[in-house]
Amino acid sequence: MIDILDQYGLLLLMGQYPYGPLGGLALTLFIAVAGLVISFPLAVLVGVARTSPFRGFRVFAGVIVNAVRGLPVLLLIFWAYFIVPLVIGHSISGITTVICALVLYELAFMGEVVRAGIEAIPKGQVEAARGIGMTYGQTMRKVVLPQAIVNMTPSILNQFINLIKNTSLGYIISVNELTYAAYQVNAQLLTKPFEVYLILAATYFLICWSLSLAIGKLEKSINARRHSVPRSA
Amino acid sequence: MITFRDVQKYYGEYKALDGITETISRGEVVVVCGPSGSGKSTLIRTVNRLEPISGGTIAVDGQDVHAPKVNVNELRSRIGFVFQSFNLFPHLSVLQNVAIGPTTVSRLSAQQARERSLVLLEKVGLDNKADAFPPQLSGGQQQRVAIARALAMEPPVMLFDEPTSALDPEMVGEVLNVMKQLANDGMTMVCVTHEMGFAREVADRILFMDAGAILERATPDEFFNNPQHPRARKFVSDIRHA
Hints:
The structure holds two protein chains of two kinds. Chain A is mostly helical.
């Protein structure tokens, strides 16, 4: 196993970079982070639309969320792969395709996280804000979302773990992320599938597991802040 | 200042307000009391449209509050509201809690809002807590901040919805003192409260409600010594024996 890492470690870590395109684990993380960064603001919009007082927004966002949630991610990748080029008139790279699909997938799931976060803010907060004359938009921006987003950071990071694992689906359209890189290594070695895929599994596990640990700590510190002991007069 | 005309409010079949007609004048301090579920809180919440009404009209300064075209945000900025549960914004400092209205609604500069907020915090005796966060304060302190937050919009009228009911007994006094001071400054105030000592001392008038209707309107002296309506008589005798 050491010899595999010795020979192919760098390939698994970052593909042919800097002599060729970025790949391997580095590309996996790049796709996941890009997916998170792009889908987060969209998810906030979805979450706000889902709780909007305007029925039109609620229905529109609800249709998107339910449609996306009812489809496998793989299907979204196929769609992005075949349909996006048709719509925009020119072909796009595999990486862009995967990012598009994952953003669509995540904005539905994270949108639900945001919705839950908004709905968990006590009604009194909204009444207090509206009571001093703030508009619906100001109330959302200054009172509800700042609290909701802090509270839902652990759930969002959980979605990030999902995102990291789902990047492996890029394999299906030959995006050279970690899984595809491992597949190529296996194809060259031919005789050591167990070792190669064990390395692959260990890598995903280590990243996701350490993220879970970090989320656990973060949750604790958020809870501690929320229940800070009132100081008496 | 505030005029209720035949105000009706239903929750489904349940009648929460049953034809309220009443006028509250400028500078008046009115205490609304009555048993739980009598509609006191509902009544006060209809004044700034936190609750919609089912019939009748409410006018504040001659403006019909529940008219469909009224700018509800502008209207609410002129009506201070203090909640039973304080509802301070926990992610903002005490100073930011007070300043958020002036900066976002009145469009004051940060500097002006800060100055106004510090003056108000001094008034409620909490200028030394300006940089603290609400969860670090006691209930009484939080409620005083909430009063300062409402005052920051410089409203001509203040509504209090059971402002001391969620407080430990030893903190009730500090909040009532702030309210007394406001009353002495000539603020128009409508207070839903069970604090009969406050009512006796500060109120110009007491409205006694039961089953969604105002059954008795009286000065504190008349109300406590010689209530007319049988329900009011029972209420007064019950609280005396409590």
